[in-house]
Design goal:
The structure is a homodimer. Chain A is α/β, with parallel strands linked by helices. Chain A has one domain: Rossmann fold, CATH 3.40.50.720. The first copy, chain A, has an 8-stranded mixed sheet, with helices on both faces. Chain A has a two-stranded antiparallel ribbon with strand order 6-7. In chain A, helix 3 crosses helix 4. The radius of gyration of chain A is 16 Å and the shape is globular. The interface between A and B is large, with 42 and 42 residues.
């Protein structure tokens, strides 16, 4: 499958690399074609890896993985282009973390709205599925690195899009029983508002390689 | 030990009943002495159970368990009285859930502040420990009802107070390895902002009897 990965940070690199390993053709998108980090990634990732602008990548991808920094996400997706994103599934991994006041960050949007909802309402012809934003990128693409039945949350308004994202998560190693469907895109509020606890836990646990499991009756 | 339980809802009942069972003397506090629910609880809970106003209970207790509805918590604690709360450990289980817009609720305070912090700053001579607000009351007092090593978070600025709360949690069945210290009271933001995800999960899981465990490397 042709997949766009928007974002050149740690999350983008981890996802793009995993997707190439799984046999997909991947274009990493950034603000300008020729971005140093994207070029370096594409050079090292083999024949199925390429790079370009946000618009280049969004036009190339049949599926879009969105992992830009949350404060710039709407601008980045605007550059990707409404038309390039229309009709496609967009996996939104971004968190609206605002570091302008230092660490720990606050959220730029929360409580009565979420970044996931803002992306869905700004791009109504795109099928937004919020997923994987509740864990470190190494865990996203290799859930087996942690013990136990820890979980991945998904939410979005389009059932077919969620099934497609579920299939992709399964290809990463997430078994179906560990993919928890939280309902429509409004549930993005909950998974984004979990981030302050996640950041605090990173300190308490001593690093980012952890995740939550559900204990149920 | 003499313990005040402020609040007559499900959480107050569950905690007060468990504390009496463990041998403590418990006074359930409410807005007015003679509150119907508090009287009924005290009548059924045995010789070590009593009821009174918020001020009666706060004056009686050597330790205070706070589980009023979050929208009214600061008013209720004001009625309990600065002097009655001074020098004491207060376990804050409340969540600032605002149901004025219907279900699901939003948070009345979040992101740059929290109810736990507001209580600590309003009552600086009280040792506030945020705990147990991330789960259903039946799980709080009986963690063994769920399988696995699910966790209880605590945070607060006073180390001795957190140790005392840890001992109380152990008496409920929380083993020390499952009590996760998140640091100072500022971490109340994270555990309160987890509530929207908890509420969504209640729907996804099919009921309130669940909790999170940590999968770590």
């Amino acid at each position: 499958m042709r997949i766009a990965v928007l974002g050149t940070g740690m999350v983008g690199h981890a996802l793009a690399t995993k997707l190439v390993e799984l046999g997909h053709e991947v274009m990493m998108g950034s603000r300008q074609s020729g971005n140093e980090k994207a070029v370096a990634w594409a050079a090292g990732a083999g024949d199925r890896a390429d790079q370009g602008s946000f618009a280049d990548a969004a036009g190339f991808g049949e599926l879009v993985v969105h992992c830009t920094a949350g404060m710039h996400s709407l601008a980045a997706l605007g550059e990707a282009g409404v038309g390039n994103l229309a009709g496609k599934v967009l996996i939104d991994i971004a968190n609206p973390l605002d570091f302008s006041g230092g660490f720990p960050p606050t959220l730029a949007v929360c409580n009565t709205d979420s970044l996931g909802e803002q992306i869905q309402s700004t791009f109504p012809d795109t099928k937004v599925v919020k997923a994987l934003n509740t864990m470190n990128c190494e865990v996203m693409v290799d859930p087996g690195r942690l013990p136990g039945d820890h979980v991945a949350f998904v939410c979005g308004d389009d059932e077919g899009a969620k099934r497609q994202v579920g299939d992709l998560l399964e290809s990463f190693g997430w078994t179906p029983d560990r993919i928890v469907d939280l309902g429509g895109i409004r549930a993005a509020r909950g998974v984004e508002m979990y981030l302050p606890l996640w950041i605090t836990l990173m300190g308490a646990v001593g690093g980012p390689n952890f995740n939550v499991a559900l204990a149920r009756q």
